[in-house]
Amino acid sequence: MRDQVILVTGGAGGIGGEVSRRLDQAGALVAVADLAESPGGAFSISCDITDAASCDEAAAAVVRRFGRLDGLVNCAGVSRPHDSLSLPPPEWARMVDVQLNGAFYIAQACGRRMAEAGGSIVFITSTNAEAAFPRRAAYCAAKAGVAMLTKVLAIEWASLGIRVNAVGPAYVATEMTRRNIAAGNVNEEQIKARIPLGRLARPDDVAGAVEFLLSRRASFITGHSLYVDGGWLAYGYF
Ligand SMILES: NC(=O)c1ccc[n+]([C@@H]2O[C@H](COP(=O)([O-])OP(=O)(O)OC[C@H]3O[C@@H](n4cnc5c(N)ncnc54)[C@H](O)[C@@H]3O)[C@@H](O)[C@H]2O)c1
Fold first, then answer.
1. Is residue 182 included in any domain, yes or no?
2. Which of these is catalytic: 105, 139, 171, 227?
3. What's the domain count of the chain?
4. pLDDT range class, residue 186, cuts 50, 70, 90
5. CATH number of residue 147's parent domain
6. What is the model's pLDDT at position 41?
């Protein structure tokens, strides 16, 4: 990853923060874009990925600072489980805006800057791109949308040398999960019992998969969703 210029959205969060640290340790030049201030020492950009102009400005800021853009990791996301019968339409729209529309806007902004020299994009999706959970209609539908977006952009931009992949974690021990446990949306013991490897994912499990897909070791992999789930999706017994 030495001297590769990588933009990480949601870089102030649990997964994005770990991805940023790992890429930095691997010698990459990391820019963090988030609504929130980034705690790390990386080049930090204020960005709302639901706003296409804000995404374009973030990609432009990276090119102004480093002269080019080689990679994007889209970790921005929100999780707010809610009964489907009473889900207010603005809440549905906000979830789809952050997870799906935002993924497209930031990929488009970065893809435009990679169109000459090529690059690599990794979306963070979720096992919920494949597995349905109750009270998560918008989240699951949007993540499934991003898994398909991964395929479409991969084939459309292959001729430009841009690879597009996704990493889909099961539950990861981050603030997002802690908030869901505290709100009673998630039972930690039940989750561990449902995961064949017997534990929640650690942010570095996810960051390792992201680094691999960004790197030249994955140079013939595109349009792929790699699930980092301890066996969750494979499990079909009781
Ligand atoms: N934590 C999990 O168990 C888990 C499991 C599967 C998938 N994921 C996905 O991984 C990604 C990261 O999750 P996390 O656990 O690190 O969550 P987190 O809450 O720790 O971090 C999410 C970050 O996204 C930022 N963000 C939210 N809306 C934004 C917007 N409109 N524009 C820019 N930034 C925005 C937040 O400020 C925050 O820093 C999300 O896409 C999430 O859906 C998480």
1. no
2. 139
3. 1
4. confident
5. 3.40.50.720
6. 61
Q: Which pair of tokens denotes residue 83?
A: 């009964």
Return the pLDDT at 3. Answer: 95
103 touches ligand 1 (CB under 6 Å): no
Taking the model in full, what pTM does it have? 0.97
Q: State what percent of residues in the chain have pLDDT above 70.
A: 98
Mean pLDDT of the chain: 96
Q: What is the pLDDT of residue 176?
A: 85
Binding site membership of 75 for ligand 1 (Cβ less than 6 Å): yes
Phi, psi of 162 (to 5 degrees): -105, 120
Write the CB contacts of 75 (distance below 8 Å, at least 6 apart in sequence).
8, 9, 10, 11, 13, 15, 16, 19, 124
Range(s) of the domain holding residue 56: 5-170+203-228
Residue 185 lies in a domain: no
Q: Sign of the CA dihedral 225, 230, 235, 238?
A: negative
Q: Is any atom of ligand 1 closer than 6 Å to the C-beta of 180?
A: no
Q: How far is the CA of 142 from the centre of ligand 1 (A)?
A: 14
Whether 139 is catalytic is yes
In a domain, 237, yes or no: no
